[in-house]
Amino acid sequence: MPRDTPEESAAAQMVGTVISDRYRIVELVATGGMGAVYKAEHLLLRKWLAVKILLPAAKGSPELTARFEREAIAGAHIQHPNIASATDFGTLPDGSRFLVLEHVRGPTLDRIIKKGPVPAPRAAEIARQIAAALAAAHERGVIHRDLKPRNVMVEHGTDAVKLIDFGFAKVPLERLSTTYAHSGGEQPEPVRITLSGMVFGTLAYMAPEAAQGMECVDERSDLYALGLILYEMLAGKHPFDSIVPVELFRDQCNTAPPPLRLRAPGVEVPRELEALVMRLLRKDPEAR
């Protein structure tokens, strides 16, 4: 059996503890270099929740802490059935920040895709719900910037979609804040936490314009990622074969995606649905 990484071992120690006097950590769901996600029980309301904890080591990264705070604000202010809502945010005694989110009973979309092509009607419905979530976010000025199958959860039994993880999102705090509007105080000045020319996110789902820096990424970039996700659901695999992220991104910038009938022979996709996929995957944001 593979041994746990140091991050997993440290994160597992939280299981069984109670944070903020009401959230009992029940199960470690996932870990990353700077944080962990848990299944938790609200002891007073008797309901399941997800708790995301940014580990103390992240205190040395103000940018990472700022992104975590923006994820919390985005999740709290964008109320939509297809976005996992945030209900609480705070700090533990050791300085770790935590975020409480809606719990979704089901897998991430990447686990569904690994089983093979998704039938066209189901793929279209999942994509429709992702689009609805993006529309709600974009209406509030929020751009996800890391849309990928792993950040889409699909509820068991209903196929209800929940978009998660706004950690890389562009979040206009000055537009989302309601407290300043009602207090009569001055609106906060917009704060940039992305340097000019910087690129971040997941290259396999990144729009071509991101090569110019994240300042060139907007709502249409999220739509490109949606197109890649829909293509991947229908074909059962990404449009391009490269396993080297930089080469894969180069293909996304310069190479037209192959028709679905060539990428996945035997898979039937309605002509109108494939046309939609190919429009979303156009290199020029203006043409999507």
UniProtKB/TrEMBL annotation:
Keywords tagged on the record: ATP-binding, Kinase, Nucleotide-binding, Transferase
InterPro entries: Kinase-like_dom_sf (IPR011009), Prot_kinase_dom (IPR000719), Ser/Thr_kinase_AS (IPR008271)
GO MF annotation: an example: ATP binding
Keyword Transferase carried by entry: yes
SMART domains: S_TKc
Gene3D superfamilies named in the record: Phosphorylase Kinase, domain 1, Transferase(Phosphotransferase) domain 1
Superkingdom to which the source organism belongs: Bacteria
Domain Protein kinase: 23-288
Protein name per UniProt: Protein kinase
